[in-house]
Amino acid sequence: MSTIEKGLKYTLEHEWVRDQGDGTGVCGITDHAQEMLTDIVFVELPETGMEISAGEQVAVVESVKAVSDVFSPVSGTVVEVNTELEDAPELINTDPYAQGWIFRIQFKDTAELDSLMGPEEYTRHVEAGEK
């Protein structure tokens, strides 16, 4: 079973966001998503300063199995990207919620976080997809 962390918000497409409490959030893909992709070999990171809307494609993750778009869980401006992934994309496999984060976003509206799933709801979503 995939690890689903408390304190995060989740999307139906298996992205997560951690509210940093300072108007920004850190985003990535879930443990479930990286398990489905298997060995990640490349990440196309977004550009810093890029304005994005919730649900908009923001990055690309390539594995030995598939190429998958990563969508932004919320609207805002990309303020930082995890450049470590350029040389070590496998960090998403080994530590998707910490070292494997993909980008940090300045929230346009923190109320958007309320429309995302909490850990319990996301757990049910994953379990329903596995049946």
Strand content: 25-35%
Oligomer: single chain
| Overall pLDDT level | 96
Fold-level CATH name: OB fold (Dihydrolipoamide Acetyltransferase, E2P)
Net shape = globular
Largest sheet: 6 strands, antiparallel
| Percent of residues in helices | 10-25%
Counting DSSP E segments of at least 2 residues, the number of strands comes to 9
Order of helices and strands: EEEHEEEEEHHEH
Total DSSP helices: 4
Q: Give the strand order of the largest sheet, numbering strands 1, 2, ... along the chain.
A: 1-2-3-9-8-5
Rg to the nearest angstrom?
A: 13 Å
How far from one another are the termini?
Answer: 13 Å
Structural class: alpha+beta
What's the structural domain tally? 1
**Which class in CATH terms?**
Mainly Beta
Named CATH architecture:
Beta Barrel
Topology:
Blueprint: E1 9-10, E2 15-19, E3 24-29, H1 31-37, E4 40-44, E5 51-52, E6 57-63, E7 67-71, E8 76-81, H2 84-87, H3 91-94, E9 103-107, H4 119-130
Antiparallel strand pairs: 1-2, 2-3, 3-9, 4-6, 5-8, 6-7, 8-9
